[in-house]
Write a structure and sequence with these properties.
alpha+beta; Jelly Rolls; 9-stranded antiparallel beta sheet; 7-stranded mixed beta sheet; 5 helices
């Protein structure tokens, strides 16, 4: 069956928020069945206890520039080598040659990873009690090499969290609840804070925003009438996609990476090609 294309307004909305204009900052895309969420949580937490991780506080860590505080740990799950503590492949904007290498030990994670098209990375990010990432700005939009730009789309699935854990995107303070999959625009100035006494654990991943990923991850009943990409996920529609802002704060001073795409390139945003 041929599905209709997702409207280009998705690309333009992500691009506009990346440039701090009105646009798409975050969306709730899927609800996760209770049993599926329970199995995933058990496997993720077991992996965190048994496997080596990288420490974001280390100066050479790819995420250290976000000025972490407290215990901030990462397990890199989708790469070319199979080492959970090696983050070298996480942000190279390529989905080629990468895999989840430990399906026998972690079959639920393997099924999730295999169901997500054009995956760049898949990580477990853990914030210890009182830990967080200070405000920082990276970019969703990157040049395509042909005078235009494409999007790297980021998603969060909370595994273990509390009501105190919060995220900030361009001054909007939000909470991500368990058993839901969220789109998160990392081009916004953003921060994460875990003031609770428990560890906050999220699955976080990036996908090239190809036309296929647009349909699979952002489609509605008209554009993606087939089942959700992962068994046990249910697509959120209409108003369900809106993430409630529970506070507003001034955008603080923040670390910033330079834009990857020029304004001229970003103005020609289009669906990504596999790379």
């Amino acid at each position: 069956m041929t599905m209709p294309a997702i409207d280009d307004a998705l690309l333009e909305g992500i691009r506009d928020a990346d440039a701090h204009r009105a646009g798409i900052r975050c969306l709730r895309l899927f609800r996760v069945d209770r049993g599926v969420a329970r199995a995933l949580r058990a496997e993720v937490l077991a992996l965190c206890e048994c496997e080596a991780h990288s420490d974001v506080q280390e100066q050479e860590h790819v995420t250290h520039w976000t000025r972490p505080y407290g215990a901030v740990s990462q397990w890199s799950l989708w790469n070319r080598h199979g080492d959970f503590a090696d983050f070298r492949d996480d942000h190279d904007l390529s989905c080629l040659g990468k895999a989840f290498h430990h399906a026998a030990r972690y079959p639920v994670l393997a099924e999730l990873a295999s169901a997500l098209p054009h995956l760049i990375n898949l990580r477990i990010n853990a914030l210890g009690p009182g830990a967080g990432l200070r405000p920082h700005e990276e970019h969703s939009v990157y040049p395509d090499g042909n005078g235009g730009a494409c999007v790297r789309a980021r998603f969060h699935l909370p595994i273990a969290t509390s009501r105190g854990a919060r995220m900030m995107l361009d001054g909007d303070v939000v909470r991500f609840a368990p058993r839901a999959v969220y789109y998160f625009n990392q081009g916004c100035v953003h921060a994460a804070d875990n003031p609770s006494d428990d560890r906050r654990v999220h699955l976080v991943w990036d996908q090239l925003l190809t036309a296929e990923v647009g349909r699979v991850m952002f489609g509605d009943d008209a554009t993606a009438p087939s089942a959700a990409p992962v068994p046990g996920w249910t697509r959120c529609l209409g108003g369900e996609r809106q993430v409630r802002r529970y506070a507003r704060m001034p955008v603080p001073a923040h670390a910033c990476q330079p834009p990857l795409a020029t304004p001229r390139e970003a103005n020609r945003v289009r669906w990504a090609a596999v790379r």
